[in-house]
Design goal:
The complex is a heterodimer of chains A (about 300) and B (about 550). Chain A is mainly α and about 300 residues long. Chain A has 14 helices and no strands. Chain B is built from 17 helices and 18 strands. In chain B, the strands form 5 sheets. Chain B has a 6-stranded mixed β-sheet. Chain B has a 4-stranded mixed β-sheet with strand order 1-10-9-8. Classes of the chains: A mainly alpha (about 300), B alpha+beta (about 550).
Amino acid sequence: MWRFIIGRLLQAVPVIFIVITATFFLVRAAPGGPFDAEKAVIPEVKAALERQYRLDLPLHQQYVAYLSDLVQGDLGPSFKYPGRSINELIESGLPVTAELGAYALLIALIIGGISGILAALRPNTLQDYIPMSLAMVGICMPTFLLGPLLVLLFGIELDWLPVSGWGDIPGDKILPSITLGAAYAAYVARLSRAGMLEVLSQDYIRTARAKGLPEWHVVLKHGLRGGMLPVVAFLGPAFAGLLAGSFVVETIFQIPGLGRFYVQAAFNRDYTMILGTTVFLSTLIVLFNLLSDIVAAWLNPRLRAQLSE
Amino acid sequence: MVKSTIRALGVLCLLSLAACMGGESKVEQGNRDGVLHYGNGSEPQGLDPHVVTGVPENKIIRTLFEGLAVKNPYTLEPEPGVAERWDISADGKQITFHINPNARWSNGDPVTAHDYVWSWRRALDPNMGNQYAYMLYPLVNAEAYATGKLDDTEKLGVRAKNDLTLEVTLNAPTPYFIQLMDHYSTFAVHPETVSKHGGATDRFTPWTRVGNIVSNGPFVLTEWKLNRYIRVEKNPLYWNADNVKLNAVMFYPTENLTSEERMFRAGQLHYTNEVPLDKIPVYKSMDNSPFVQAPYLGTYYYLLNTEKPPMDDVRVRKALSMAVDRETLVSTVLQNAYVPAYSITPPDTLGYFPPKTFSYDPEKARQLLAEAGYPNGDNWPGLELTYNTSENHRKVAVAIQQMWKDVLNIEVSLANQEWKVYLDSVNQMNFQIARRGWIGDYVDPNNFLDLFITEGGNNNTGYSDPVYDEIILREAPNAPTREERYALFRKAETMLMDEMPILPIYTYTSKHLMHPSVKGIPPNLMDSLNIRYVWLDPNETLKAE
């Protein structure tokens, strides 16, 4: 098992290195720079700014300097927010985005898991069709539509919930979490239905039923563990996707998370911010994929046996 | 199972309902406690007056710091700030500021003339990378110092005669110089505080953080939650604290227009930074409408690249301009949210009205185009109109494209570019027609007309006329009276519009939703907020829609 983990971690290093290199040179290739503005910046001022951010060095030297800072954990200063470091900005945004992602994932698991399992129990009946059609709608409905719709209904019409913010007013975390979680709930529902269907048709389930075990026992104890495998495999990338993809929800609800920095950085040509967030998120994605592989291996006895050989 | 899902959802709703019961809105609470909740557009880049550029930064910095003179929000004329009065010499080149002996930094230190000398040297220091350094260029030797041609700071036209007297020497009479004292790039910073946290010209120091910052304005910084809010509270040491009515201001980075409008509706904001265009009719029709709109010191126009055919022919440029029906454009596509413009300077710029040298004239436009060799659009070589990605720019471009087609029977294609790509194209003069906006930094026609001097950094049209340059750079600054100066500007602007290197479209407006309880924020050309005048009346409520 340890060999498996260490091997995968070693594989991750070149992947992340390629991501950094590609991002570094791609953002530099884009026209326009961080100091271009509608009002022309006088050449002397621009030169001073470039000096302060090391942009006056040849590109390869900037690259080497960036890498050596990165190895020491320093992601550099922000262009857009002078006086703040990228580390600091990520630190300020990450807890919020992670919390939002965790709630969304929880909602996705509870709603998606329950409806998927129930659908699998009575395939091709109404109990299957209704949640699965809803799931299809959930997958198709973009967050930028669902968010404002929920706000309109619960925030404005019914006036039950705050329309924006994060942790400022009680209840303001509910709508963004649901908005972000909905699409993932739909995926989880479809995955858990498929997984459960496959497992419930296995011989050992028939054996369990033949033993006369109550149905809930069969489903929860014997079926769930195998049936949830596809969901677990999905969770790692899903959580990373929630972190990286929450920017739409963060924008709709004015949430001070990481996603907003990420998107704005690209528009602002905030080189260090683009790189910092890309490096950070790609590392997270690699780690979460690894984590979900480990959990999947742990849940699947055959795979576990293979790995411990 | 459907039942159980519904039940789960029901429980969730009930829980959330319980969580937000008993809510007095932020606005009601604010009215009671004297706290203004202010939609401020976006997260400020920072709060160092010599580093940042931008409107949201301006709003916050001007509550924390105060300039030598401030603007009266009703008239936009200067009134005493840190300086209790100032004398201007007969030739207009010497200004003596007398600093208010009661002016204090928030740590109790007196504000002195030496602080200004130190701060202006910092603002102009070439190592600072201050993008607004040019605001101080009217000072003797300021430009030479800021561009590295002179390194003796003693030669700068600013000197402290004693603790409370600041002497300023200008290159030429600059009638708008006092106004510039209300621009953050000319504000003083507290030298000891800046030095304590890093080098004087270092952009990366934490001196503006909560707990570190020392300022001299009506409010002090008490909380700064990145991308959430900034809270400033009344500064008891401010010299005019007795006349500050608010206890605190909360600034929110409301980037998303739609969300901001929803926050207003939900009672979370007193004041919005913007109003979505499609919501304007609804708000306008309300009794006691919270919608406020005023002309804004900015012009939306198209740059015409006079170096590229067919636009190197003035007749083509004029034909294009006369074929645009601005009144219709504004009243239909733009929902009357802007004002049609026929020149670069916005109307009533501190009493200045630009000349109107042409109007919508399809007949004349066709005739001019025919004279230029394209009768009824024949032989038309095609033209590309570049704009940066935005729904609003696209709508305007499509409408104008259609007007040109209808009136002149010519094809113009549209090219949409991402912001930085567009800036690059414009700066490289790599376009035929390009959208442009210019927002004034100070209320004076000079701020618009000096854009088009030969080789001006923001000219971007290839327009060059030595007579025009002479008027703007030499004759107008030396004009003895405001009337004579404005007459010169009108002459220059008439010359400019006769060559038509730009196609003015509309004058910007500031648009806000303002809760009726908010008093003392009059609409004005600068969209200028003077927080000293603002107060909240708890008896005023927003009528239900």
